[in-house]
Amino acid sequence: MSKTLLNVRDLETKFFTQDGVVHAVNGISYHVDEGETVAIVGESGSGKSVGVMSLIRLIASPPGKIVNGSVVFDGQELMDLAEEDLRHIRGNRIAMIFQDPMTSLNPVLTIGRQITESLELHMSMNRSQSRERAIELLELVGIPAAANRLDDYPHQFSGGMRQRVMIAMGLSCNPQLLIADEPTTALDVTIQAQIIDLVDRLRKELGMAIIWITHDLGVVAGMAERVIVMYSGFIIEAATVNDLYAQPHHPYTLGLLRSIPRLDEAHKERLVPIDGLPPDLLDEPSHCPFAPRCEFVIEKCWQENPPLETVADDHLSACWRDISEIRLELDAGPAGGAA
Amino acid sequence: MSEAANMNGSGEVLLEVRDLKMHFPVTRGILIQRQVGSIRAVDGLDFDLIKGETLGLVGESGCGKSTTGRAILQLHRPTAGSVRFEGVELTETSGPDLRQMRRRMQMIFQDPYASLNPRMTVGSIVGEPLDVHQLGNSKTDRQERVRELLEIVGLNPYFVNRYPHEFSGGQRQRIGVARALAVNPSFIVCDEPISALDVSIQAQVINLLEDLQRELQLTYLFIAHDLSVVRHISDRIAVMYLGKIVELAERTELYENPRHPYTEALLSAVPVPDPVVEAKRQRIILEGDVPNPASPPTGCNFSTRCPKAMDRCFQEEPEFRDVGDGHYAACFLNEE
């Protein structure tokens, strides 16, 4: 087994707003090994983005506050680190690429300037060295005629090309960990395929670990080694990618997989939606967050929130019910045959 | 090309689109505006819609799929071509006659946040089409109909006096559907109706659209960029690239036997939520970006990115023709 690069324990982030306390992340624990790709899956409001932003303390405060938790990166506790020292890690050893390449690039600076900025800051390179390196990086991410494009502005690039520029910026200081927050959601599928292919190639070449945040279970299946499923600020299931799809244990994961149409479906089958609405994060979590929408809910689900427990090798799930019972109910129940 | 892209003539044709073109002028100058070019958003489409079917229209952003939907409904006046709906030529219809036709054809929009007026109650949003078309004879008739519509789309009729901000994305999309249904249309253009919704909510809206189609005998033009969703809901699928339909076929046929390299690449790029399948799939990665629709390439539109391009593709434009059993494609590779 390879070495653990990132170890997150009981991370808890809340937002103190006028309407009340938003329980965005409610004590999540996970780890990422060196060179590994971990996907965090969840819907909007599940806490997946806030969860990773909290790792490098990129939470606007106020209203946000990391109220509890420990994040150990490469043997170093990040939560106790002075802002000054954390800045040497952010953008340098932990890099981040964001969802929307249109808004996360500065429109009034050339892309060359935006890439060289972090090189000069973190790697103490001079102008000509950093320019040289910027050209290398743009070539690495597949931008044609890189040397000529260095002095172009973001609006002169297409969406896919801008995302490549973002990736080049993320990679500029050879990070050990790359956090990608829905990097392909704003892109077309053929461009998405290019970007996924690129990131996977770079990971192999550079040996960095990746946390890939997405809501798309299809993308996850193709690229991640392990998957973490979040719901309402909790990790409700975590497993290796093959296990999660073949043997989902949590009713929410099961529901998600049954509710999405598959390109390779043989017959036109009716989708099985998850009833109800996503949870209101203003409510204090006291019972299982999925209980109001769960078809397999029992009395206990309303009384206590189930802990995340090992259910099989490398497989964690937070549910009071036994999966074998759920499967029996599924086979027998009306849900399977409902028209 | 005059031949109808019809499925072996089965069923009654509801909508007939021939050589539809929608070009937007590019102008320069402030006082005296000169036209210096045009964006060919939609550039010569031919297809039929059979009564009761769902035709899926897929393509990447900027390929002209939304413009097609709007040009059919005459929300944009087409530059050229013909759109016949229930035998009436829409491009030559205007004023009250066109308004009369709009009772038969409605639209559901992508963004459930932007497409509902935040200052109107749900009751007045859903009831507005009834007023426009003078369908609610009395106040009680109108109220009755609004309640009925809310029930049809699975909303509590008790919500009539609430405002859009009080609803979630999925519920808002249901309000949009109720508004479209208010005038009893036979044809609905669904323009990316689920892409703004959360994954767990998408299936609810897809199922609703399918139920309504069966109960009310609706015909859909379903526009989306998500091929998995389009394949699920459609009977036939048209694939668009840079203002043109490059392939049109029955849903299973298109998936199993694509006859255009763009369709092949598009299908291979869509991720499948199954790691075992994903590990085995061969992905065709297209190089580069979609060309600018103001200056499309000569020859085949796809030639600049096509992995199978031949010399001929850069000079001549392939014809959109039947390659067998109502499967249409525009590629020279289909010629022996």
Explain what you see.
The complex is a heterodimer of chains A (339) and B (336). By secondary structure, chain A is α/β, with parallel strands linked by helices. Chain A is built from 13 helices and twelve strands. Chain A has helices at 48-55, 83-89, 111-122, 127-140, 146-149, 159-171, 189-206, 217-223, 241-246, 251-259, 299-303, 323-332, 334-337; strands spanning 4-17, 20-33, 37-41, 64-73, 76-77, 94-97, 177-181, 209-214, 226-231, 234-240, 309-312, 315-317. In chain A, helix 3 crosses helix 4. Chain B is an alpha/beta fold and 336 residues long. Chain B has ten helices and twelve strands. Chain B has helices at residues 65-72, 95-102, 122-132, 139-152, 169-181, 199-216, 227-233, 251-256, 261-269, 275-280, and strands spanning 13-28, 34-50, 54-58, 80-85, 88-89, 105-108, 187-191, 219-224, 236-241, 244-250, 321-322, 328-329. In chain B, the strands form two sheets. Chain B has an eight-stranded mixed β-sheet, sandwiched between helices. Chain B has a four-stranded antiparallel β-sheet with strand order 2-1-4-5. In chain B, strand 1 (13-28) and strand 2 (34-50) form a beta hairpin. The radius of gyration of chain B is 21 Å and the shape is globular. The two termini of chain B are 19 Å apart. Classes of the chains: A alpha/beta (339), B alpha/beta (336). The A-B interface holds A 43-44, 158, 160-161, 188-194, 197, 215-222, 241-242, 245-246, 255-257, 259-265, 268, 270-275, 277-278 and B 60-61, 168, 170-171, 198-204, 206-207, 210, 225, 227-229, 231-233, 251, 255, 265-278, 281, 283, 285-287, 289.
